[in-house]
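Budget justification aside, the reviewers requested a transparent look at the raw inputs and outputs of the sequence design task funded under Objective 1. We therefore reproduce one unedited record. The lines immediately below are the structure tokens for a 176-residue chain.
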């Protein structure tokens, strides 16, 4: 199986321009990007992980790239840009289920129509993604409300072998 079997032509790039752009995030660090993919569904992420296991490629997952700590800088890796996985999937009275690429300001626009709000607000709230907030365990400007780990009830995880499982409570802390 090739990457072109997993991703359509507009979901994959190995152009020099994209490799230069994705070689850094908002930090001062620069790495080496071998290509970029934009998954739209979790099955693509699973297949990508399995492809990379077979071919010894490494991956760097990226939300909006707002990390000032270098968290989205690839080190000779393919960048997995989660920005196209931006669906709000479901909502209950005190919870909302979203994909990793949902932008916080878009989520809050949606929640305000229901007279609700997600209280954590990092400085980059207008562009940061929920997945990136989880990955960095952000607290934001309103640290009174705690850290991201205090607000996540459950995570659906695709591990390094391509297996998908749902985690909550104590084991969830291993991913946040």
């Amino acid at each position: 199986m090739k990457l072109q079997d997993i991703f359509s032509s507009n979901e994959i790039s190995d152009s020099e321009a994209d490799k230069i752009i994705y070689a850094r995030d908002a930090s001062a660090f620069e790495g080496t990007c071998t290509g970029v993919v934009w998954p739209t569904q979790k099955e693509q992420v699973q297949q990508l992980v399995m492809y990379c296991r077979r071919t010894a490629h490494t991956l760097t997952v990226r939300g909006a790239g707002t990390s000032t700590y270098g968290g989205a800088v690839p080190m000779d890796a393919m960048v997995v840009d989660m920005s196209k996985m931006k669906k709000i999937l479901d909502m209950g009275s005190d919870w909302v289920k979203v994909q990793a690429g949902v932008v916080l300001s878009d989520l809050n626009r949606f929640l305000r129509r229901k007279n609700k709000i997600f209280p954590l607000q990092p400085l980059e709230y207008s562009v940061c993604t929920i997945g990136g907030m989880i990955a960095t365990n952000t607290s934001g400007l309103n640290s009174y409300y705690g850290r991201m780990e205090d607000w996540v009830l459950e995570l659906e995880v695709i591990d390094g072998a391509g297996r998908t499982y749902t985690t909550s409570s104590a084991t969830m802390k291993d991913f946040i």
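The chain has a mean pLDDT of 93. The radius of gyration is 16 Å. Computational costs for records of this kind are itemized in the attached budget.
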